[in-house]
Amino acid sequence: MDLTRRDLLALGGLTLAASAVAPSAARATAPKRGGEFRFRGYTPPHFDPHLTASYTTMINLSFTHSRLLRHKAGPDVKPGVFGIEGDLAESWTQPDEKTYVFKLRKGVRWHKKPPVNGRELTADDVKYTFDRFMTIKGNANRHMMNALDRVDVADKHTVKFSLKEPNAWFLDFLSNPMALSIVAREAVEQFGDLKKPEAVIGTGPWVLERHEPKVRTIFVRHPDYFRSGLPYIERVEGIDFNDPAARLAAFVTGQLDAGPEFPGMMIRRQDWKIVKEKRPNLRYVEFPSNVMTHVGMRIDKKPWDDIRVRRAMSMAVDRKAILVATAEGVGVMNPPVPAALSAWSIPHDQLGEGLKYDQYDPAEAKRLLKEAGLGGGFSTTLEYATYGSQELIDAVQMCVKFWKDVGVDVKVVEKPYAAFFATAYQGKQDALMMGPQFPALDPYNFLAQYLPGEPKNQSHVNDPALADMIMNSSRTLDDKKRRQQIDEIQKHIARQAYYVRLASGIYIAALDPKLENFGPNLGYDYGGRLSAAWWNT
Amino acid sequence: MIRKYALKRLLVAIPSLFIATVIVFSLSRLIPGDVVVLMMEENQYAQDLEEMRAKLGLDRPIHAQYVEWMTRAVRGDLGQSLYTGRPVLQELARRMPVSLELGAVAVVFAILIGVPIGIVSAVRQDSVRDYAARSAAILGLSMPGFWLGTLVVVLPAIYFGWSPSIEFTRFEDDPWRHLAQFLVPGCLLGIASAASIMRLTRTQLLEVLRMEYVRTAWSKGLAEHPIILKHCLKNSLIPVVTILGIQIAQILSGTVIFESIFGLPGMGRFLFDAITERDYPVIQGINLVVVTTIVTVNLLVDVVYAYLDPRIRY
Amino acid sequence: MPEPVEVTATGQWPAARTRAGAVRRALSGAGRFCRRKPLGALGAVIILALLLMAGFAEWIAPYAYDEQIPGARLRAPGRDFLLGTDNISRDIFSRIVHGARVTVTVSFATVFIANVLAAAVGITSGYFRGRYDICVQRVVDAWQSFPFLIIILSLLAVLGPGMPNIIVSLSILVAAAASRVIRGATLSVVENAYVEAARAIGCGHVRIMARHILPNVAGTIIVLATIGLGGIILAESALSFLGYGVPPPHPSWGSMLSGSGRTYMYSAPWMAVWPGVAISLVVFAFNMLGDALRDVLDPRVRGSSRQGRDI
């Protein structure tokens, strides 16, 4: 909390309402069962979590499936913090650095749908799921379990995970609402894979009742959910809706119960005024976004191998001006681990020497370029995809203008999303690339883009000392020690100016105040966060 | 006589349809090589390049592939969506009716708006009313459809706290609501076509009004309205039927935009999603179905037209 | 018809006289056009303004299209900024003026390519007739059976976005529709006695088509082009809305309206209103001028307004 407030940029009198973080929505009423929750839903390509990396699949499965572990949720959880608690696992131990033993809850029932028909979940199901996850062809998320060696069933309610090497992030990966839902063997055998809506059979709080592609997905309460009494909300409806202007109109006129923007329950900052006017009684929660946009530079090519050129590129960009233009001036500066992940991100003002390269100083940028022998300016290209985001398009145009001001002529190459993803996003751009990074919930994903050979290493960073530091931290199981290591890593990266990191906006979650015992957060676990909430009507 | 004409017209339509299918078929042949790689790597439509090329049918000689593609299409097999893995025809069968309903509502509105304005404009040629009516119609045509749609969604939301329902209602769930949800987008979609129907009604009516028998009727002192209605409308509406055949193409274009703004799960939105996902079998399937529909509709319209007005049989 | 050069014996400069005469004639012609076709004349004035904006954008616009004016974010239209400023503190009037250039480039390039293509296909088809005509017309039929947005999106999906690809794919479609009308016009011109005569004295096909047919169908082509221009501007904006328009940094009206315009719809409506007005005005102008020209130049295409409508 303190961290966010310190890093918030208060500009031009826009002091931040971010103090509204951590809502004290007191539990005024007793839990009540019933009612319907309507949110902006997504149509997935299909429902098999092991055959796609699409968040649209994961969001839907967060209502119907359970994982071994999950992130703590509720009104008291500070957004951006991801405490780990048991989901299907009742408890777990770590007999040695490379072994985890999970005790499963007893009496967990699958949804009453053929062919599983509500039988009890056992350790075999867990083993089956992870075996499938590791071996199925075409699993884009397989890298999450790179450290895993094997899963063994100790008894009906105990599973043992053996790792190839110690991995400090392993439990974070297990609780991540991406891909690691536990699935049933019978469903896979009956349907061939889990792509069809009929194959959506989990142990989660809601059961998928109906799926109309591009229209709606309806979930109804799972009566045998293992957390007895939960969920309170009887019916959940995800309404798939494409057009942002129409989505907002629907929210303003009360057709949706929560803000319609990604990643769930949000509204866009430029719409806040009208939303406040039209739905004055909403509850708003603000917290920084973990979507960080950066500019990658081909360090393996000239002139980007010259640290002065990279620093100049970074100092030429007025991050605050971009925030003002695209997010009404409200946002946070990002250290290499985005400020949104407050448990791991170093406070931006503690970056040390590297701090000054994040600050707008066109005169110094020009001087550095001159020092590097590029005083006369030079031309280069920047590849990007719009992601359908006007904010990104605006940010790109502003950066180009800032670089032009210091004599760097950047030609913009717009690519279709898929082409961008397959080339520049994987570091295959000619010179510069710009784009949002995967909004991970753990710092490792952000640090991985500094490791040689990683596809997400868009700047082609090849810094053996840094790679050692990162790998070392992954093997350090002690949280406190690891945090110190990650602080050092971030300072080192900032000094080197490997990427031009831009600031992130502050999300505004907009919720019907009658929804009680609910706290919004980052990530795709829509169902998990909603599972203990109720309507006070 | 009419049968002979119909046959002749059919003989003309067949080669056109053939060429259209070749165009549709060539779409996947035009995909650049690096995009095929992308489809495999990024969209994960296949494990390796061989399989990707086989899925797109690029591994066989072009004529053999066309024949196979057409044979299967005739049997109702349009291949499988790369993105969802479901048969394209099955997906289209669910979405096509939505677009056709939207199109039908649009046609009704186009006629309801276009014909009366055309009549006023012709009867009062070069009067202020003529200019005003025509300006209004052309102005409606001059607004980009998505902009009109946005205004209709956003303005009532701000000023009246109302906006069209974002939830699509199926016919079997609530027939009345189902039909009602097409009214607003159908009307907006019809506006663009109304302008050309107005233009045609006006010119046709002007020609008829100059004809001898109308003048005779006029000179006999018949009241103005019966003359127009009885003698003129009948004659001038026939070409309006023809232009409707052409307008179908225009209207189906509009579905891409209006289905997206009004959340209708029709073919237009399906196409747009398929393009985003590089789902070429779906893109081809939609084009094939649409083009066949349009060729057929035009054929029917021409034959009906010939039946109504024997002069045009050639 | 070309004016015969006056031979003068009065010592006046013939060139000056004829030029003055031509100007006078043109003026009186324009005057007559304005009186008889007020809506068409209004259209012509708007188009003239568009062309001036496109040609002299740097002189007319007070700011560069990408200039970020400090402290002037989201200003409503007023004395300082005629049409207001956008979220990046750029002057909207200046962007509209520069956007006219994109509009003119895309629409005129498309119409030019399309009509050259259409004239070549239409005239040869109508002139030679026979088997060649039948074959060509079946191809035209096929192209015309595609709803434009559907086939254009499909083409752009294959070819990739960008201004050249937009122009090329739009041209092909416009050409198909236009060639049909030009063919019709050619068919009736071919019937004329002077074509027979030219053939009788042994003129080649190319010469007949270029010298005798083309000038006589030129009116049709001009009308088609004028109405087509409006349709192309609308098509470009529809493509922008779907994310396949002219990419930045060039400001196109379509992307100003559909991109940041719609994003700030609720908080800064002027960002969408002005580009919207610009598009509507220009499309309106092309349609009105086209309608008027049709009445004046070419009664033949009066009924078949197919061309302008397909786009």
Kindly describe this structure.
The complex is a heterotrimer of chains A (537), B (314) and C (311). Chain A is of the alpha+beta class and 537 residues long. Chain A contains 16 helices and 21 strands. In chain A, the strands form 6 sheets. In chain A, strands 16-15-17-13-18 form a 5-stranded mixed sheet. The radius of gyration of chain A is 24 Å and the shape is globular. In chain B, 77% of the residues lie in helices and 0% in strands. Chain B starts with a helix and ends in a 6-residue tail after the last helix. Chain C has one domain (39-298): MetI-like (MetI-like fold, Orthogonal Bundle), CATH 1.10.3720. Chain C is 73% helix and 0% strand. Mean pLDDT of chain C is 82; it is low at 1-16 and 300-311. At the B-C interface, helix 1, helix 6, helix 7, helix 9 and helix 11 of B face helix 5, helix 6, helix 9, helix 10 and helix 11 of C.
Layout of SSEs?
The complex is a heterotrimer of chains A (537), B (314) and C (311).
Chain A (H helix, E strand, L loop, with lengths): L1 H6 L28 E6 L13 H10 L4 E3 L12 E3 L2 E8 L2 E6 L18 H13 L12 E8 L2 E6 L6 H6 L9 H7 L14 E7 L3 E6 L13 E6 L3 H9 L13 E2 L4 H7 L4 E6 L4 E5 L9 H9 L3 H9 L3 E2 L29 H10 L6 E7 L5 H16 L2 E7 L2 H6 L9 E5 L6 H5 L16 H12 L3 H18 L2 E3 L2 E8 L3 E2 L9 H5 L3 E2 L2
Chain B lengths: L1 H28 L3 H9 L7 H7 L6 H13 L13 H36 L4 H15 L2 H15 L15 H6 L2 H27 L2 H8 L4 H38 L5 H10 L3 H29 L6
Helix pairs in contact in B: 1-13, 5-6, 5-9, 5-11, 6-9, 7-9, 7-11, 9-11, 11-12, 11-13, 12-13
Chain C lengths: L13 H23 L1 H18 L1 H4 L31 H37 L1 H15 L3 H12 L3 H28 L2 H8 L4 H37 L11 H11 L6 H28 L8 H5 L1
CATH class of chain C: Mainly Alpha
Number of domains of chain B: 2
Q: Provide the residue-averaged pLDDT of chain C.
A: 82
Largest sheet of chain B at a glance?
none
Radius of gyration of chain B: 24 Å
Helix content of chain C: over 70%
Instruction: Count the DSSP helices of chain C.
Output: 12
Q: Unreliable stretches of chain C, pLDDT < 50, 5 or more residues? A: 1-16, 300-311
CATH evolutionary superfamily of the largest domain in chain B: MetI-like
CATH class of the largest domain in chain B: Mainly Alpha
The tally of beta strands of chain C, per DSSP, is 0
**What is the rounded distance between the termini of chain C?**
33 Å
Task: Determine the strand fraction of chain C and express it as a percent band.
Answer: under 5%
